[in-house]
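Appendix C: a fully annotated inverse folding record. The material below is reproduced so that readers can follow the format used throughout the book. The structure is listed first as tokens, followed by the designed sequence.
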């Protein structure tokens, strides 16, 4: 191995210090450490971008050392040392990485990437508003521009400096007259904000709605049974939308007239509401009038069914009852009947009239008893109930007393077909078939004879007509006639009855 001359100085730079050798030293080949080296060069991700891009450092792979430094260079000017960087201007971006080892320090640069500038946001034009003028009731429509290099973030309608809305259209509404504009705001991709405003349009006020006066009520006083009529005002610059009758603050009707009805006494007013073409609402109210409590008078009543028969069910509805009144039934015909609400029902058990008594506290004519609203009659004759009653002669639903006064007229009412009528004057058990009129009269004769036999002559019938037999007419009898023979004088039956009747004389 050759030796270096002593006059030469060897500088060792492994630790950066200088060593002066004053004698020759033998240094084996390989005894000096190599400097660090990059087997994989540093790089930048992404390989290109803009001033809005965040670039990341890839430090590469180092042998014989470790990374101990990093610089970002934009067009040769250091802009950072971190693992990422976001350039603030366009240029050529390079990553510089240093590695330190026992053999020294090695610095390497990445390939350059291009950083492009970001364009500022820009609108395609100004917003426009249509129509170009109008009233506070008009609908205004905006046409907004587009934006490049950014996004629209806000749209506004401004009346002067006051924001009225943000939609595509707007109706300013009452009180919002003045200068109307459309304002659009956008945010650029470079982070900047831009704003643009339309030309102003003039919004004119609309005349407010006005009533021609206040509503009036006629008559100006009354009670709860009175019909009150309203005269409503007209409206200009608008439309009447509601009409109401108020008792105090309670709405009791909406028509042109009203009858307050029972319980609605107090202060009555008429209220009219209108909506103007400007969108505003106005209300007009009449002067209040006093509604007094009406004098209650119970009305005459009527019924849906006015007649009935003993033993047959009946249902009859009462009309014209006064609200809140109490009802009860009286009269002979009311036996077996009851009332619920306004309906009379039941099965009558006695003949006679049915009266309705209506009672209401405060009514001037309470209690009020109706005339006979329902008449209950005896049932029509049937074998069951006619022949069981031996005290009456029945003919066509008419009852005849068995007394002899007026028998001529009663029998005349029977007509010529006597056999169809059934009567029974017997004292024994009756049969359903009854007897003919002729048989009944025979029984009557025998009955009278029995009574006469038990009493002094003429004790029952004092008239000489009955002295010798029941129906002697010609002065003859089963006993010698007195002298002179009396001239027959009709006393009980008229001659006309006997001309062609059952008992026509000789």
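Designed amino acids, in order:
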């Amino acid at each position: 191995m050759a030796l270096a001359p002593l006059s030469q100085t060897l500088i060792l730079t492994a630790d950066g210090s200088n060593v002066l050798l004053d004698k020759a030293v033998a240094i084996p080949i390989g005894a000096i450490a190599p400097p660090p080296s990059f087997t994989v060069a540093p790089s930048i991700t992404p390989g290109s971008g803009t001033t809005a891009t965040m670039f990341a450092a890839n430090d590469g792979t180092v042998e014989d050392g470790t990374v101990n430094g990093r610089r970002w260079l934009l067009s040769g000017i250091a802009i950072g040392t971190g693992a990422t960087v976001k350039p603030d201007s366009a240029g050529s971006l390079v990553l510089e990485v240093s590695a330190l080892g026992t053999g020294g320090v090695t610095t390497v640069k990445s390939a350059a990437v291009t950083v492009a500038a970001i364009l500022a946001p820009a609108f395609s034009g100004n917003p426009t508003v249509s129509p170009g003028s109008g009233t506070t009731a008009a609908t205004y429509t905006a046409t907004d521009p587009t934006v490049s290099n950014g996004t629209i973030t806000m749209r506004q309608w401004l009346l002067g400096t006051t924001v009225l809305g943000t939609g595509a259209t707007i109706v300013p509404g009452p009180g919002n007259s003045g200068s109307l504009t459309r304002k659009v705001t956008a945010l650029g991709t470079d982070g900047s904000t831009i704003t643009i405003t339309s030309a102003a349009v003039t919004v004119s006020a609309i005349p407010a709605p006005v009533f021609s006066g206040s509503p009036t009520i006629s008559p100006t006083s009354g009670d709860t049974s009175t019909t009150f009529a309203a005269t409503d005002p007209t409206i200009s610059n608008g439309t009447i939308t509601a009409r109401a009758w108020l008792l105090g603050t309670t709405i009791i009707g909406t028509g042109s007239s009203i009858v307050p009805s029972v319980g609605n006494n107090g202060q009555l007013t008429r209220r009219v509401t209108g909506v103007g073409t400007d969108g505003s609402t106005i209300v007009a109210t009449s002067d209040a009038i006093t509604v007094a409590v009406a004098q209650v008078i119970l009305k005459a009543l009527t019924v849906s069914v006015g007649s009935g028969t003993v033993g047959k069910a009946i249902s009859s509805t009462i009309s014209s009852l006064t609200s809140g009144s109490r009802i009860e039934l009286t009269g002979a015909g009311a036996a077996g009947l009851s009332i619920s609400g306004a309906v009379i029902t039941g099965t009558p058990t006695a003949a006679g009239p049915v009266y309705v008594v209506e009672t209401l506290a405060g009514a001037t004519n309470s209690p009020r008893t109706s005339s006979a609203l329902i008449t209950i009659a005896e049932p029509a004759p049937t074998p069951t109930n006619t022949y069981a009653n031996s005290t009456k002669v029945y003919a066509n639903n008419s009852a005849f007393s068995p007394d002899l006064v007026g028998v001529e007229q009663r029998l005349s009412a029977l007509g010529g077909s006597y056999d169809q009528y059934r009567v029974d004057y017997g004292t024994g058990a009756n049969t359903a078939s009854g007897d003919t009129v002729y048989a009944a009269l025979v029984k009557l004769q025998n009955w009278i004879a029995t009574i006469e036999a038990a009493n002094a002559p003429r004790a029952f019938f004092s008239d000489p007509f009955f002295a010798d037999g029941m129906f002697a007419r010609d002065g003859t009898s089963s006993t010698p006639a007195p002298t002179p023979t009396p001239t027959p004088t009709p006393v009980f039956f008229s001659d006309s009855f006997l001309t062609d009747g059952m008992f026509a004389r000789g």
